[in-house]
Amino acid sequence: MIRLLGLLFFVCVSASAQDELKQQQLIKKSTLHASITLGYGGIQNPVANSKNITSVILPNFAYYGDRWYVDDFALGYSLIENERYYIDIAGRFNEDGFFFELDGINKLFATSVMSDNLKAPTRPSAPATVSLTPIERDLSYLAGLSSGIKLFADSWVELAVLQDITNVHNGHEVQLNGYKLLSVLGGMFGVEAGVNYKSSELIKYYYTIAPTEALSRLTKYELQSALNYHLKMAYEYPISEQLSFDMKLKYTWLDSELANNPIINENGYFSGFIGVTYHF
Fold it and tell me: Residue 15, Cα to own-chain centre: how many angstroms?
């Protein structure tokens, strides 16, 4: 079991530093925002015979114009936007592909799903683990409509419908998330809960084992669409105008039918990162 590195961090912070943190929550338009976090994080890989990944560095960059924006490798164009709701055209990488593409430059692509390698509980009724050859799948890029509505102070509900535009699996996702921001102990605490529907085309492409990939005979099975759930928490504490302590932790519960697939070793996976961030 690989455990997320614990960290106790006690610092005295001025009122000006707290104000600076609140300003960082709002992205200024036509300004490049970049940061780099040094610490520990990674992603737990639920795919059989696949390695987890860890990293001590987590880069981030964002740019928001009047309409166009980029946030790491997510792209978007604002159609309608005000203080209460928005509608965007949005795009991002599909995270299922990261389970098969976690080397080299793809480590940077995985920043949006960086996880902490905590061991998820195994399923007592899971099918026996099968022996597999190295499994290769391609990353896909999803694009579609994303919308959000503000319920009350610092609380939003967001809905996104995204289709594969790279002709990898031609599947789609429907995501529903709700999140809340709070001021806690001089820092900003955020909590998010959500559900993600993944179409059968997407699930079959990534999680069906081909006969040439199995070293032993498999019982015939048929995968369908899946509903995954997640809970995410984040905390940012200002140290100075350019430094902050950051902690992000997310757990994703896999659909029960998907978790009983021979290619899957776990019923969920952790993701996260903890460290000190320098804001450029």
Answer: 32
3-state helix, strand, coil in the chain (%, to 5): 15, 50, 40
Q: Which residues of the chain have pLDDT under 70?
A: 1-30, 101-134, 211, 213-221
Spatial distance between the Cα atoms of 172 and 170, rounded to a whole number of angstroms: 7
**Residues in contact with 192: Cβ distance below 8 Å, sequence separation at least 6, in sequence order:** 177, 178, 179, 180, 230, 231, 232, 233
Residues 6+ apart with CB under 8 A from 42: 2, 52, 53, 54, 55, 114, 115, 116, 117, 271, 272, 273
Of 72, 212, 91, whose CA–CA distance to 143 is shortest?
91
Are the CB atoms for 50 and 56 separated by under 8 Å?
no
Contact (CB, 8 A) for 201 and 169: yes
Q: What is the pTM of this model?
A: 0.78
Q: Which of 244, 241, 203, 239 is nearest to 221 (CA)?
A: 203
* Cα dihedral across residues 24, 25, 28, 32: positive or negative: positive
Q: Tell me if residue 248 falls in helix, strand or coil.
A: strand
